[in-house]
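Lecture 7 notes: from sequence to structure.
We start with the chain below.
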Amino acid sequence: MSRPLVLIPSSKAKAEGGRTPIYRASPGVRRGPIARDRREVLAALETAADELDDAGIARLCGVGADDVPAHRRALAELGRTRTLPAHQRYTGVVHRFAGLADVDPAAAAAEVGIVGGLLGIAMLDEAVPTYRLEVGGRVPGLGVLGTWWKQRLGGHLRRLVGSRRCWDLLPGEFARLWPAKERLGLDVVTVRFERPDGRAAPSASAKVAKGELLRLLLDGQVPGFGDLVTRQPLVDWRFEERGPDFAAVQRT
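Predicted structure tokens for the same chain:
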């Protein structure tokens, strides 16, 4: 039986450093189903380093005025930046609580796709440079990154999921990169994290819970969607079935 696919967002927090290959020479940029799209994004970002004013760089990278010069240089040098595997590069809350840095991607019980503005979607073993981008950032020649990727990722994600199960743990701005029409007929379940009154759970708490759930999926401890309700694997959350999807309700 094929491994399920779990979709999570990229993070602003990233490990520093890297090794060969440099990003421009990495396999996922040179070849593959979305390699051409990645090269187009890379070229546009390197050009943006010269064309955007300081305010544009600040909005694109989500940084303050004092950090603009460093991030302008980082964009200009992005193609020459050394890389780390995605599971070691991203160090956000979800990624840390899932223990991704210590995962063997080939041996894990689930495959993970990390959705973001630079690579579109990166699998755990794909090479990722150090960078900082906002999915809602605007790039000359491309427009808003998230909108640009939305027009290109749908078919790729559909093929990536295929006939297997997919756990969608993406928050709103990342979930919008995968159009609803491209999900039709697929075995996809979205897990929403809520307060007892139905409002969205606090972001920090939801991120921890997503990381803990991902850890269980990677270890093969939640083999099916129904196991969320029958086993209730997270102490601080109660899983409820909501049609084709699930809600994780924060316990009081």
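Points to note: The mean pLDDT is 95. The first strand starts at residue 5 and ends at 9.
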